[in-house]
Write a structure and sequence with these properties.
Number of strands of chain A: 17
Largest sheet of chain A: 11 strands, mixed
Oligomer: homodimer
Structural class of chain A: alpha/beta
Shape of chain A: elongated
Number of helices of chain A: 15
Largest interface: A-B, 108 and 109 residues
C-alpha cells in the first residue's frame, strides 16, 4: 500500500458494493477505466410488487429505457417482476418470462443488483428488503411504513453488506426532498421542517375550505374519487404522516427518529365552523408534519395547524404535497409536487435507480442516514404554540369573565377573543392565545371544561409556524 | 482485460478525474478500498473572489468544517482565497497565509482539486474556469453569465480533462434545481419550465401588487433596500433571467441553449394600472422564464405574464425565486427558496462541493449537460398565448367596433372586454384574447395603433401558462 497517495488530490470509490468478483479482475477493470473514457456499467433490476407503483416503474423502465441509458451511461435492464398475481393484464406489453410469483427468482439471481420493493405493507416488505440487502443487492423502495419502522436496521444492514438503500418515493411521492436533504442541502443545519405530506388529508381540508363542507361529507367525496381508502384511518388519523415525518426528520436532523415518539392528531375533529373561523382570522387549516431542531431535543408532531393564508404552504391545494424547510444557510425553501399516484411515485423510484447509476459507488448508506446519534424528543407538554379555542357556553352574564379568569390563572395570555350569541341560550366564544406551553393550555382547558357555564370545548387547534403573528 | 466481468453486477468509477498519480499506485489504492470499509478522500478548495458569495462560502467552509467532513466522509480543506483586495477586513478570522492576490497560487497548487469561482462577471471568470479545468481541477461556480455564455465550452473542457464543473448557485440561489434536473428528475422528460428566477424583479412586482405603487417609485425603494443595483438594467430588462433560462433549459431539455435565442422583455413598462386590471381578472403579474418542450422545437422566452392568482407561482413574493417544472411522470412540481444573498448562494456552492464529495467519481460532466444535440428554437412569432391589451381611445361611438373589427380580421378571438370612460373625452378599453399566434396579434396591434380613434396601445401583457382558463 502506498500511504502517501492517500493525501493526494484524488477521490476513490469507497463502497464498491457491486463488486462480487475477485480483486484481480477488478484491477484489470479499473485499469480499463483509465484507458477508455467511460465504462458502461450494468444495472439489472428486479421489481417486487406489480400494483399501482410497480406498474408505473415497469412502464418507465420499459418505455424510456433508451433515454435512461443515454442519460446515465449505464445499461438499465428490467429482468424480473414478482407478484402473487401474474395473470391480470396490466395493459403493458412485457418481455416473455419476466413475470414470476417467486421472490427467490430475484434474490437468487446474481445478475440482479437493484431490487425495487413496491409491495407496500410491513412484514413481507421487510423480509424482501432484508433478503436483498443481505445478498448485497441495492434496494429502492417506496414503502414509508417499513422505512419508518425499520430504516435504521436496513441502513446498518446495507452498510454491513456494502450496498445501498434509497427510498425517495416514501416521502412526498415525486418530490426529491430526501435526495436534496442528503446532498445539495447538506451544507445546512436544518432548523425546521413543516410538511404537507399526506395527499388524502390535504385534499379533504382543501375541499372543506373551498366548499364550506363538513368532514364526513368531504371524506365520502374523497373516497368516491379514489383519494381516500375505504378504511381511511391510516390517513385521516395521521399515521401515514408520522411515518413520513420519522423518515424526513431522520435525514434532516441526522438522527434516528422512532415514529412512536411523534405526537399525532388527525383531522377527524375539524369542522366547517373551524375552517370558517380560521378564514376570518386570515388563516388556512392544514395538517402538518412538524420537526423543530432545538439545541437539546427535537420537537416532532403531526396535527392540524392554522397557518397564515399568505404562507406558501397555504396555497398547496388538492392532493399536492409540499415540504417547507428552513436551513441555517439556505433560509426558507419549499419543495412542492404530487405526493402520490402511479407515475409521480414511479418517477421517484426510477430517479433513485438513476441516482445509483450516477453515483456509481453506492455512497448513500452512510452514517448520516438514520444516524446512530440519538436525540431526545421534546414531550408535547413542553411544546410552545399559540392556540385557537372555540367553546360553546351558556349565553349568560359573567361567562366570559370565568373563562378569562381560568386562562389568567394558568398563565395563558389571550391575543384575540370573539363571542357570538347563538340560539337556545347558548353562545360561541372563539379565542386565539399568545404562545404558551402545551401543559399550561391543557390545564386551563381541563378547568374550563369543568366550568358549569361551559357546555363544551368544541375546538382546540394549534396556530402558526413557530413565530407569532403580530 | 477480463471482458466477461464487464457484464457482471458491479459498478466502476468512470471518470477518475482526480487521478494525477501513475496507475500502479491507483491499483494499490483501489485494493485498499476492498480491505478497508471507507477511504477518506481529500477535498482541497481554492476560492477565487472574496465578495458577498465568497464570504458566505468561506464562512461555511471554516465554521462548519467538522460537520461537512462528518457528513461527506471526506476531509474538506480551504487552502486559498484569492481576491485583488485582501486588506479589507471581512470580519472572518482566517488562517494565516490563506489570502492571495495571485490566481496562480491556486492554479499551480497540485493539492487544490476544487476551484470555487465566485468573482462574477465574464472575462476574468472565464479565464479562471478555463485554467482550472485545463489543470484537471473541478470547478464550482455561482456565475450565471459565464455559464450561460460558455457552459458548453466548459463542459467539453471538463470532459476532456476528466473533471467536473458544477454551478447550482447560478440559478435560483440556494434552490437545488439543477441537481434535481440532473439526478432525481432524470426519469422524466421535462415538458415545461416556468421560473421566477430574478429576485429583484419579483420584489418590484410584489411590492407594486401589494402597495399599488408604480414601477419607477418601487425601483427606487428596491434600490434603497439593496434589492436592486444602481444600474438596474441587467435585472429589470430581463438579461439576468435569460442567462438563467439558458442554463435551466440546457439541463432540462438536454440540449445547448444559446441565450441570444431567448425572447426577452423586461418589466419597465408594467404600470400600477396593469396590476390593478390583472387583479380584477383574478391574475397576478410575474416576470417568468419560460421553456416549453415541443416535439420539433423549444419555446424559450422571458417576459411578464398574468398568471392565475391561485397558481403556486403567484404566491412567490418578495425576492424569493421558484421554478415550476412539469415532468412526464412527475407531473407538476415546484422548488421555492431564496434566489440570492450571501448565505443562500453559498449554501448552493458548498452543496456542490459536498456533491463532489458524495459522488466521489466526477460523473457530472456528462453528455446530458449542455448536450451536444442542438434543438431548434421557436420564433416568438410562432408562440401561442393569450394576451391582455389595454388601449386608450377616443370616447366616441363606433370605437369598440373598429377595434373588434381589426381583431376579427386578424383571427384574434376576444375572450373578455371592458370599456371604462375616462376624463378628457378618452376611454380605456381592456381586452383579454383567446390563445393566438404572436404574429397575428402583432399584425392586429399594428393596425390598431394606426386607427385614428386609438390614442395609444398602453399595455400588451401575455396571459396564462399555456392552458387557457375557462
Amino acid at each position: 500500500m502506498h500511504k502517501g497517495s492517500r493525501k493526494g488530490p484524488f477521490f476513490l470509490s469507497r463502497n464498491p458494493a457491486f463488486l462480487t468478483i475477485p480483486p484481480t479482475q477488478v484491477i484489470l477493470e479499473t485499469n480499463t477505466v483509465f484507458a477508455k473514457e467511460v465504462v458502461m456499467s450494468n444495472i439489472v433490476v428486479g421489481v417486487i410488487g406489480f400494483g399501482t407503483v410497480g406498474k408505473g416503474v415497469v412502464k418507465i423502465l420499459l418505455h424510456d429505457r433508451a433515454i435512461l441509458e443515454q442519460r446515465s451511461g449505464c445499461s438499465i435492464e428490467l429482468k424480473k417482476i414478482v407478484d402473487l398475481d401474474i395473470t391480470t393484464d396490466r395493459g403493458i406489453p412485457l418481455p416473455s418470462g419476466i413475470l414470476s410469483t417467486d421472490m427467490a427468482d430475484v434474490m437468487n439471481d446474481p445478475a440482479i443488483n437493484v431490487v425495487v420493493e413496491v409491495m407496500g405493507g410491513e412484514n413481507a416488505a421487510k423480509k424482501c428488503i432484508e433478503s436483498a440487502l443481505s445478498a448485497g443487492k441495492n434496494v429502492v423502495t417506496s414503502n414509508k411504513e417499513v422505512m419508518a419502522k425499520h430504516g435504521l436496521y436496513f441502513t446498518r444492514l446495507a452498510k454491513e453488506h456494502q450496498c445501498t438503500i434509497l427510498y425517495e418515493a416514501a416521502v412526498g411521492g415525486g418530490i426529491p426532498v430526501l435526495h436534496a436533504l442528503r446532498n445539495s442541502l447538506s451544507a445546512n443545519t436544518v432548523e425546521t421542517i413543516y410538511g404537507i405530506v399526506n395527499g388524502t388529508t390535504n385534499f379533504i381540508l382543501s375541499k372543506m375550505t373551498e366548499d364550506g363542507s363538513d368532514f364526513d361529507e368531504t371524506l365520502k367525496e374523497a373516497q368516491a374519487l379514489g383519494y381516500a381508502e375505504a378504511n381511511p384511518k391510516n390517513d385521516v388519523e395521521g399515521y401515514d404522516a408520522t411515518y413520513k415525518l420519522a423518515i424526513l426528520a431522520s435525514l434532516a436532523f441526522r438522527t434516528h427518529v422512532n415514529y412512536n415518539d411523534i405526537y399525532r392528531e388527525g383531522i377527524t375533529a375539524i369542522t366547517a365552523a373551524d375552517i370558517a373561523a380560521a378564514r376570518q382570522f386570515g388563516y388556512t387549516i392544514k395538517i402538518l408534519a412538524i420537526g423543530v431542531n432545538h439545541p437539546d431535543s427535537l420537537e416532532l408532531r403531526v396535527h392540524p395547524v392554522m397557518i397564515d393564508s399568505s404562507h406558501p404552504l397555504a396555497s398547496v391545494r388538492d392532493a399536492f404535497n409540499a415540504i417547507f424547510i428552513k436551513g441555517s444557510s439556505l433560509g426558507e425553501s419549499m419543495l412542492y409536487g404530487r405526493g402520490a399516484g402511479e407515475l409521480p411515485t414511479a418517477s421517484a423510484v426510477v430517479g433513485d435507480i438513476m441516482n445509483l447509476a450516477f453515483t456509481n459507488t453506492p455512497g448513500f448508506a452512510r452514517d448520516t442516514d438514520f444516524a446512530l446519534n440519538e436525540r431526545a424528543v421534546t414531550s408535547i407538554n413542553e411544546c410552545v404554540t399559540s392556540f385557537f379555542i372555540r367553546c360553546i357556553v351558556d349565553d349568560a352574564p359573567g361567562v366570559l369573565a370565568s373563562i378569562a379568569n381560568v386562562f389568567g390563572k394558568n398563565e395563558v395570555s389571550i391575543r384575540a377573543l370573539e363571542q357570538i350569541d347563538g340560539r337556545d341560550k347558548s353562545a360561541s366564544i372563539t379565542i386565539i392565545t399568545h404562545q404558551v406551553k402545551e401543559e399550561r393550555m391543557r390545564a386551563a382547558l381541563n378547568e374550563i371544561e369543568g366550568l358549569p357555564c361551559v357546555q363544551k370545548v368544541a375546538s382546540v387547534i394549534r396556530v402558526g409556524l413557530g413565530e407569532e403573528r403580530i
